[in-house]
Write a structure and sequence with these properties.
Blueprint: H1 6-18, E1 21-23, H2 26-42, E2 48-53, H3 55-61, E3 65-66, E4 72-73, H4 75-85, H5 100-112, E5 114-119, E6 127-134, E7 137-144, E8 150-155, E9 158-162, H6 181-190, H7 197-216, H8 223-231, H9 235-251, E10 257-259, H10 265-270, H11 273-281, H12 286-307, H13 315-330, H14 335-349, H15 361-380, H16 396-410, H17 412-423
Parallel strand pairs: 2-5
Antiparallel strand pairs: 1-10, 2-6, 3-4, 6-7, 7-8, 8-9
Helix pairs in contact: 1-12, 2-4, 3-17, 4-5, 6-12, 7-9, 8-9, 9-11, 9-15, 11-13, 12-13, 12-16, 13-14, 13-15, 14-15, 14-16
Length: 424
């Protein structure tokens, strides 16, 4: 694959579009971003706020701590943080610069301003509308389909910015239909490292820092620390513990940023941190480490194309399978070993549901990473799952297609029931 090839250029761009920095769980941050943009359009501090959100957004905001808010949870906290302290031009780092004084102002704002929430059902899994009011004036911002995709900015009936949204899709991004495991494998072997070094270096730096913080601090259920205490310090335990510890910290108010994958910090950490641990253990060298990260990240992105940004299907599963692929590569695995690792891993843990962002995500991540490693161990020992074994189909791309169908279509009703349980 030549550097000038359309697919080569697309894959580089896809990595740049997906491996973005974010402060905190991305759904509350998307609300904060929309709120900051709405306040910016209004031009002054609003005296009333309406947040309308789809069920999957509500599910992922309900139980997670919003960073830089003094450990507050929920939609009102996220919206108020964006309005009072947000810097809209920083997008998913919109509330990264909040000071102690800002937290005091935020708390005062929450006590004195009505922030109302409504369930929004207009056919989009990912949908947020924030409307802010001051006397007779109002401003409205809508984000649809992915976290930074602003499709409407309106003030007092005047359209400032608008983009047509007819269906759930990401037409604004590089064409994801160009992804396939065969082409990803070809790209991994030929990519010029300098074309991806910057985004990967940032992923290594950010995600390693928050994982270490998760192991050192007291966050949530401390799953990362529990793994090391109960399973020892071997490489398999460390790979699971680092990914889990990053989630421990991120789900429970740590104010360090992460590099996301497919719109999720948990997925970004899951497909990178285990690979980094194995690269150190195996003394793989810098170049092989980078190529393993390219493989893992693109494999995770490819799986999420079919599933969608938000689903009742736990995203840690796809990221854990992707980490298994990266680990197989670091161990000298060829294409056959890598694709069978992915299929095996998906066959093992594809039943895990997503019931929102919260402390237990760290435990799900640990099991997904373990499944990725087991998927590789199985094939290395002459064992595999075959087409016809449940949702496993003949060919890795067909299996990934089945998982996407399961996550997007098959679990739609499951997602609705989970949302009803969570929000009554």
């Amino acid at each position: 694959m030549e550097r000038t090839n359309e697919i080569y250029q697309a894959y580089v761009q896809i990595l740049k579009e997906e491996l973005l920095p974010a402060m905190g769980c991305t759904e509350p941050i998307a609300i904060a971003y929309a709120a900051a943009k709405a306040r910016e359009a209004l031009g002054e501090l609003p005296e009333k706020v309406l947040v309308q959100a789809s069920g999957s957004i509500i599910k992922n905001v309900k139980s997670v701590i919003v960073p830089n808010t003094g450990h507050l949870k929920g939609i009102p906290a996220a919206a108020a943080a964006g309005i009072v302290c947000g810097e809209a031009d920083r997008e998913l780092e919109v509330i990264a610069g909040v000071t102690e004084d800002g937290i005091c102002k935020l708390r005062d704002y929450l006590e004195n301003v009505e922030i109302r929430m409504e369930y929004l059902d207009e056919g989009f899994t990912f949908d947020i509308i924030v409307t802010v009011y001051k006397k007779e004036e109002y401003a409205k911002v809508r984000i649809t389909n992915f976290h930074t995709n602003i499709v409407l900015v309106e003030k007092n009936g005047n359209i400032i910015e608008q983009h047509q949204v007819e269906s759930e899709g990401e037409e604004e991004l590089t064409d994801r239909s160009l992804l396939s495991m065969e082409k990803i494998w070809e790209f991994v072997r030929c990519v010029e490292i300098d074309d991806v070094r910057e985004v990967l270096d940032r992923q290594i730096q950010y995600n390693t820092a928050i994982a270490k913080e998760g192991l050192q601090g007291d966050y949530g259920a401390n799953i990362g620390s529990v793994i090391l205490k109960s399973e020892g310090n071997g490489i398999r335990s460390r790979a699971k513990a680092m990914a889990a510890a990053g989630s421990d910290a991120r789900m429970n108010g740590c104010e360090l940023p992460v590099i996301i994958n497919s719109g999720s910090g948990n997925q970004g950490m899951t497909c990178s941190l285990p690979v980094l641990e194995y690269a150190k253990e195996l003394d793989s060298g810098e170049e092989k480490m980078y190529r393993a990260l390219v493989l893992s990240n693109l494999t995770a992105i490819y799986q999420k194309v079919g599933i969608g940004r938000l689903s009742a299907y736990c995203g840690a599963v796809s990221a854990g399978a992707a980490a298994g692929a990266g680990i197989a590569y670091l161990n000298g695995g060829d294409y056959e070993e890598i694709i069978h690792t992915i299929v095996n891993a998906l066959a093992i843990v594809s039943g895990i549901v997503c019931d929102g962002a919260k402390a237990s995500c760290a435990a799900k991540i640990a099991f997904a990473v373990d499944a990725g490693i087991m998927g590789y161990d199985m094939y290395r020992n002459g064992q595999q799952f075959y087409g016809g074994d449940g949702i496993v189909a003949k060919g890795v791309d067909n299996t990934i297609h089945n998982v996407g169908r399961l996550g997007r279509e098959g679990m739609r009703a499951t997602n609705e029931e989970i949302i009803k349980m969570m929000i009554g």
